[in-house]
Amino acid sequence: MKRLVLKFGGTSVGTIEKIKKVANIVKKRFSEGHQIIVVVSAMSGVTDDLKSKSDSISPNFDNKELDVLLSSGEQISCSLLAGAIIDLGINARSWMGWQIPIVTNVNYTSSTIMNIKTDEVVNFLKGGVAVVAGFQGISIEKRITTLGRGGSDLSAVAIAKFFKADSCEIYTDVEGVLTTDPFMNKKAKKIDKISYEEMLEMASLGAKVMQPSAVQTAMIDDIPINVRSTFSEKPGTKIISEGETDYKKVVTGIAYSKNNAKVSIVGVTDKPGVAADVFEPLGKNNINIDMVIQNTSLDGKNANITFTIKRADLKKTLNLLEKNKQKLNYNKVTQDDKLAKISIIGAGMIANPGVTHKMFRSLASEKINILAISTSEIKISVLIREDLTQKAVKVLHKTFKLD
Ligand code: ADP
Ligand code: ASP
Ligand code: MG
Questions:
Q1: Which of 107, 224, 253, 261 could make an S-S bridge to 337, C-beta 3.0–4.6 Å?
Q2: Cα-to-centroid distance, 206 and ligand 1 (Å)
Q3: What are phi and psi of 69, to 5 degrees?
Q4: Measuring CA to CA, how many Å separate 349 from each of 271, 330, 401?
Q5: Is the CB of 253 under 6 A from ligand 1?
């Protein structure tokens, strides 16, 4: 007998038919003699819908009330699924985050799980299936919190950790983690095994099949994850520690993120402290800076600082730069807001020189201009025009033999 955490994403519970299908999967696993904790997301589209309602009241809708609103989608799917399991003759019960409780910090809309009480659920598991609402918790101030978009993945991993589960299975609408998003390139192939490090890069760089914080938590606590399909019996992808993976391929996967913007500050004085002066007000206003490039004039007196941000932060960024114009003493600011970031990821890159030029040559063959570059040991990212995203993903997928 094993203790399993089975997480079903919004795409797996998007309709009543699908909820019934999930109930049957749960029944099968329970009947095999396992203890089952199900973690469930809101039916697909529901969270977006709720968010658009609060947005239409105010773009600055109160964070704490937003969490009360957004978490409500999971209450619906959780009760529907528990009811569907009961209807199949299996004892089941739903739990909202606050009932367990799943205790989080006070970082509303993107909270971190601090603790999960286990005794009541553990007791129930002896004779029934526990169905837990993903994405939500309760803060130490006794207010409802959510874990950031896609946060049911984090709920599942944290529950697997606190309940000392034997495995954590993430059921979704694709076969597992693929070499790239199948909606961008039909030639995407399932990856059998991927290291936490590579998966963390993939997720952070846009592969939304797993939430980055969930991968990070799994990596820290060494919780093996299996990403698999709700709609097929095929084995999925194992996310495991680096030692257990083999790096036959130089590049494991390709990720992309759209909605990027680039800002260039032209003609600041090149002296210590200028970059700090540029980025300090942005940081204090919660604007995340991604890529940064600085180039200096030939006489060494002036510099241009270019950086990328999310498109949604562009207006705020430009306002802050304007506000600080006197202190920063720049000539002008230029911007471009229709950009995408394309990344190739692979631990095999460490031992294989020449990947960078191969990537750039491949993009050049499709006449795709590179606007900025950033690298780490296991990834290379480039900034390009957003309308060229699919073209870039496809050519890189082919170049690195992932087709
Ligand atoms: P869920 O509702 O199960 O949480 P998500 O929509 O959050 O599902 O994540 C699954 C989706 O992630 C897939 O439908 C796919 O379009 C997208 N995706 C992006 N990159 C990848 C990738 N590398 N592998 C698999 N899926 C990916
Ligand atoms: N329902 C939440 C969202 O859409 C959480 C999740 O799906 O994991 O972000
Ligand atoms: Mg998801």
A1: 261
A2: 10
A3: -65, -55
A4: 36, 39, 14
A5: yes
pLDDT at residue 248, rounded to an integer: 75
Cβ-contact 335, 314 below 8 angstroms: yes
- Which residue has the least CA distance to atom 6 on ligand 2? 150
Domains and CATH numbers, the chain: 3-173 (3.40.1160.10), 243-403 (3.30.2130.10)
How confident is the model over 334-382, as pLDDT tens digits?
999 999 999 999 998 988 889 999 999 999 999 999 999 999 999 999 9
- Ligand 1: residue of 47, 169, 172 to mutate (most ligand atoms within 8 A of CB) is 172
Q: For a ligand 2 pocket test, name from 7, 11, 41 the mutation site with the most ligand atoms within 8 angstroms of its C-beta.
A: 41
pTM value?
0.94
Label residue 299 by pLDDT band (50, 70, 90).
Answer: confident
Peptide linkage before 101 cis (omega within 30 of 0): yes
pLDDT in tens, 203-240: 999 999 999 999 999 999 999 999 999 999 999 999 99
Tokens of 50: 């709720």
Position 303: which residue type? A
Identify whether the C-beta of residue 286 lies closer than 8 Å to the C-beta of residue 320.
Answer: no
Ligand number nearest CA of 12 is 1
